[in-house]
Design goal:
single chain; 340 residues; alpha/beta; D-Maltodextrin-Binding Protein, domain 2; 2 domains; eleven-stranded mixed β-sheet; globular; disordered N terminus; disordered C terminus
């Protein structure tokens, strides 16, 4: 199973936008670039980090690139060490490749936010989610699923990625939009898609939220029945409506973004914006995205930072509603479903 998480569209609408400097000129950056992936090899967005390192070198965008894994995910030490890493991007610098897991993890762990500890540089890709059940499930449609949640939110156990991650957040958003008390939602997190699918097959969870790209092969052979997708339009190969079609106003994708050390110079930030456009235009990168079912969603510079401010606020809102924050203002963060 492929597990996602690269440039993350977390919590809500995936904003369309271009990358600053996509047509910029100038020599390709020289020296070695280290891409920090806060996950074990093969987990999270590590696959995307390694694909990115290969493309950067094979397309001649940097002299050399390597991936440094930090399996511990988000903690104070990781963010502090990275934030102080320093080093100009174009002369052997370091960037962090992460998204929803670290953004949400920083909030739940009550450490410095990703925004405060890093320099947001660019978003490159997102990964839509799909809600699936076992083929023999009594839940045949999203309406069946929604009816059970409205009747008793704790009746269904829904599986997905790790607690507090993108799948968990999406489940909270769906519950909120259906008008249920999200504190009562029963969620089971698993380290990998394979383990989550196994739990669904054994009946330990009633439904599963996961990467549309990763679960597509299981859906194609009939081992999983899709009920809805989180994209704005229907996904080829998945016979299921969007959440928006079912009047649940959520368009959501896990996302992956590039972050630099705190205090990067404007010149270095501008060079990354230009590099973002070159990566997005690379046929190799486009092929990787297509193969994995990722959506190219390039957004850089101030546009990315402003988008990230909003997404961080939304993430905190959902995590607070789920009861995963030590302190939270319980004021409503907005309705999103038409009442009948």
């Amino acid at each position: 199973m492929r597990r996602r998480r690269f440039f993350a569209l977390a919590l809500g609408v995936m904003v369309a936008g271009g990358c600053g400097g996509a047509n910029g000129s100038g020599a390709a950056p020289a020296g070695r670039l280290t891409i920090v992936a806060p996950a074990a090899r093969g987990r999270g967005w590590d696959q995307a980090a390694r694909a990115l390192a290969t493309i950067l070198t094979e397309d001649g965008l940097v002299g050399a690139a390597e991936v440094s894994n930090r399996p511990g995910g988000v903690d104070t030490a990781t963010l502090t060490a990275f934030g102080a890493a320093g080093g100009p991007f174009t002369r052997g610098g370091t960037v962090l490749l992460t998204g929803v897991p670290m953004l949400a993890g920083a909030e739940t762990a009550d450490v410095a936010s990703v925004l405060a500890a890093t320099t947001p540089l660019a978003r490159l890709a997102g990964d839509w989610a799909v809600l699936v059940v076992a083929p023999n499930s009594l839940l045949r449609t999203f309406e069946d699923f929604a009816a059970v949640l409205r009747r008793n939110p704790a009746e269904l156990t829904v599986g997905g990625g790790v607690d507090g991650g993108s799948d968990h957040v999406l489940y909270g958003m769906i519950g909120k939009c259906l008008g249920v008390d999200v504190r009562l939602l029963d969620y089971a997190g698993y380290p990998t898609d394979a383990e989550a699918v196994e739990a669904l097959g054994e009946g330990r969870v009633a439904a599963l939220l996961g990467s549309a790209g990763s679960l597509l092969p299981e859906i194609a052979v009939g081992r999983l029945l899709p009920l809805a997708v989180s994209s704005g339009e229907r996904i080829d190969g998945i016979d299921a409506p969007t959440l928006m079609e079912r009047e649940v106003r959520v368009k959501y994708a896990d996302w992956c973004g590039v972050f630099g050390p705190r205090g990067m110079s404007p010149q270095d930030r501008d060079e990354v914006a230009a590099l973002c456009g070159r990566i997005d235009a690379s046929p190799r990168w486009q092929a990787v995205c297509a193969a994995n079912g990722w959506n190219r969603a390039c957004l850089s510079g101030d546009d990315f930072r402003q988008w990230l401010v909003t997404e961080t606020r939304r993430a905190r809102g959902v995590l607070g509603e789920l009861g995963l924050l030590s302190s939270f203002d319980t004021s409503c963060w907005g309705g999103c479903v038409r009442r009948h």
